[in-house]
Amino acid sequence: MELLRSNLSRVQIPEPTHRIYKHECCLSFDTPVKPLSFDTPFIWRRLFDSVYDFQRSEGGLFVDMNSFLAFGKDYVSWNYEKTRNPVYLHIKESPKSVPEDRPLKKPTLLAIGVDGGFDNKEPEYEESYSIVILPDFVSLPFPSVELPEKVRIAVDTVMSAVGAERREQVAAWTAEGKKVSEHALALQQIKSGVVIPPSGWKCSKCDKTENLWLNLTDGMILCGRKNWDGTGGNNHAVEHYKETNYPLAVKLGTITADLGAADVYSYPEDDSVLDPHLAQHLAHFGIDFSTMQKTEMTTAERELDQNTNFDWNRIQESGKELVPVFGPGYTGLVNLGNSCYLAATMQILFSTHSFISRYFSHQSLKLAFEMAPADPTLDINMQLTKLGHGLLSGKYSIPVAEKDVATGDVRQEGIPPRMFKSVVAAGHAEFSSMRQQDALDFFLHLLDKVERGNNMRPDLDPSRSFKFGVEEKILCSSGKVSYNKRDDCILSLNIPLQEATNKDELEAFNNQKADKGLEEDNMSTDEIVRPRVPLEACLATFSSPEQIRDYYSTALKGKTTAIKTTSLTSFPDYLVLHMRKFVMEAGWVPKKLDVYIDVPDVIDISHMRSKGLQPGEELLPDDVPEEAMESAQPVANEEIVAQLVSMGFSQLHCQKAAINTSNTGVEEAMTWLLSHMDDPDIDAPISNQTSDVDQSSVDTLISFGFAEEVARKALKASGGDIEKATDWIFNNPNASISDMDVSSSNSAQTPAQSELPDGGGRYKLFGIVSHIGTSTHCGHYVAHILKEGRWVIFNDSKVGVSTNPPKDMGYLYFFQRLDN
């Protein structure tokens, strides 16, 4: 006890602002729970006990009573050596025996760890505590009246606090409360004499008897939206809104005496809402809500149901028996709630030599911790190293006692990447939420974070293994050329459906549909014939010549039509291909292409290498007259704006969307608009050109490698916006031609490009990220990876041998360059 009293100055009583970690080690995925219980089958205990004897006999977490960071048994001494904090709260948890027939608590709130949130039959634990003083691990019992009052208060505060790991998760998961609809307060109802019976409902336009919605204006009963997996309705309710603009509908089967729980949807607000006059609106159609019974799930409950009961067999390789795999490199990632995009991406990245070397084989956990700041949970390099060791060491890829409830297979628990997600998503509105995200967006965001995290040692930066140089050659009608170079990490490919190899089968299928009046919605998956497009055709579209209209030629001193061709100046170690499966169909409605891509195991892109400036080619003059620069002032394309306005968006928002996407097209502008609707400056007027340019913005562009004169011109043309100025430079390559490398590919390259990896053009497929769903922001992501000569499927925490990898259904394809 005297030893503890002599170290009281190193004990701190937590304040409400302190982040307290007590559920997971900051450097590993150790928890207070002993990983294996005593009823684990003997064969598995014998196999793994030799590795974890000491950890499993001791276990638990040690909470630093000064910094409130948690450490496993193997790592707490490192913290003592670094901080000299000697006093720790040792927390150990042992599972309680729970009856197997314990009912599953149905969640009523989109939350984890709060009343009404997810239960999922998580085991209950008995906790035990003690005070441990390092370096000799002197242990004192807790609770004990003999302990100093300061220690007792500090420990009680830690025990009663919500851990930082769970507090962040709950904050992200808890859904916002429904808002009162602005349309409910003055809703006009048509006196049609319609009386709605208490049961026996059917869609007015089809035979659907479930997922039915009552329009509160005219009393029409119509079916709801079609789900991504083909279930649900036939979209008749939303189509009725588009025809009539009647704003509110209530889901039949959700109306009970508790009107606040009824599912009311506002089409203009595109959200579930509250209708304070719902009783009055229902009475208009003769509905007595007090006698109604609940027979349908609400939209929120259905979302919860999809999150908790995602059917593995409906995602990939349905009907195939999954043979689980364990060991180093075969560790699953726990789904934190719509985090499959992160899991699929990270599994593939940690199958590359660059990430393995940087964060596992050449980086120990101790070295990463020693180099990390005071709080290692906030350091991207520390958390990547933690994740790398968690995935690759095999320490956590072990069978657990309980088998998979659905399949009866032996399973692993996987590791929860909470701290990694928290640090990589910090400051990002979307990735820090619990909403589904685009795996491509996350991949690019992560590479940017990794590059920033290695800015002091670019030679260690694993993101560079994905980078390559892109060269755009522009041929003016004058016969002169210009060259523009940039770096990229992905090849984003259009899918030319006209190049399908099964046109005869497609034509026969479409004729059969027309003759029999069939709809694909009513056909089985096996009956549908989908276009098959070779990957070679997609790659060809990337390099094919493209017309540029209204191109300002410095040779002709005016606008003309130019031809742009794109090629690569270097080949990366790892080539990532992004398939553009989402397009705009008639009416500018986003649609996912239902298409197969025939992807070979080995590809050769040698023909895509740039040849640089060719003999006899003459460069365009590099001077851009002031009037040309002024004409390049960001101006929204009127056609794009008109089409967006016709879809219900405001004129100003549409102009900003067109300008910020460089007038590329309606699809790109709509994507930008939908993702920036909540920007604080979305309603601010569009900036006009100013004569003065902020010097810090000029310096930023100079740091990108652009000349000062070009930087100033671009900033003037873009109203001082750095991002738009960068786009302006790329779209006006003759403005900076004097600063570009326009010599042949055999001559000296720019410093930035000379650091890029390069080699031959032959690549082998090793990873696929597949997507199921109507949008990249919904549905599910799964990874397939070629490991040790066999394909392995990674579906969150489930890891098993793949019998039929979906090579023709990928969203992202990962290739590794083959050595010559």
UniProtKB/TrEMBL annotation:
The entry lists its GO molecular-function terms as: cysteine-type deubiquitinase activity; zinc ion binding
List residues of the UBA domain: 635-676, 692-732
Which reaction(s) does the protein catalyse, per the Swiss-Prot or TrEMBL entry? Thiol-dependent hydrolysis of ester, thioester, amide, peptide and isopeptide bonds formed by the C-terminal Gly of ubiquitin (a 76-residue protein attached to proteins as an intracellular targeting signal)
Q: Does the record carry Isomerase as a key word?
A: no
Briefly, what is this protein's role? Recognizes and hydrolyzes the peptide bond at the C-terminal Gly of ubiquitin. Involved in the processing of poly-ubiquitin precursors as well as that of ubiquitinated proteins.
Indicate the segments annotated as coiled coil, or none if absent: none
Sequence positions that bind Zn(2+)? 203, 206, 223, 236
Q: Report the active site residues.
A: 340, 780
Q: Which SUPFAM superfamilies match?
A: Cysteine proteinases, RING/U-box, UBA-like
Keywords for the protein's UniProt record, in alphabetical order? Hydrolase, Metal-binding, Protease, Repeat, Thiol protease, Ubl conjugation pathway, Zinc, Zinc-finger
What CDD domains is this protein classified in?
A: Peptidase_C19B (cd02658), UBA1_atUBP14 (cd14295), UBA2_atUBP14 (cd14388)
What does the sequence similarity comment in the record state about its family?
A: Belongs to the peptidase C19 family.
Q: What is its EC number?
A: 3.4.19.12
Q: Give every USP domain span.
A: 331-818
Looking up PROSITE patterns in the UniProt record yields: UBA, USP_1, USP_2, USP_3, ZF_UBP
Organism in which the protein naturally occurs: Brassica campestris
Q: Ranges for the UBP-type domain?
A: 179-289
Task: Give, as one word, the top-level EC class.
Answer: hydrolase
Q: Which InterPro entries match?
A: Papain-like_cys_pep_sf, Peptidase_C19_UCH, Ub_carboxyl-term_hydrolase, UBA, UBA-like_sf, Ubiquitinyl_hydrolase, UBP13_Znf-UBP_var, USP
Recorded protein name is Ubiquitin carboxyl-terminal hydrolase
GO biological process per UniProt? cell communication; protein deubiquitination; proteolysis; signaling
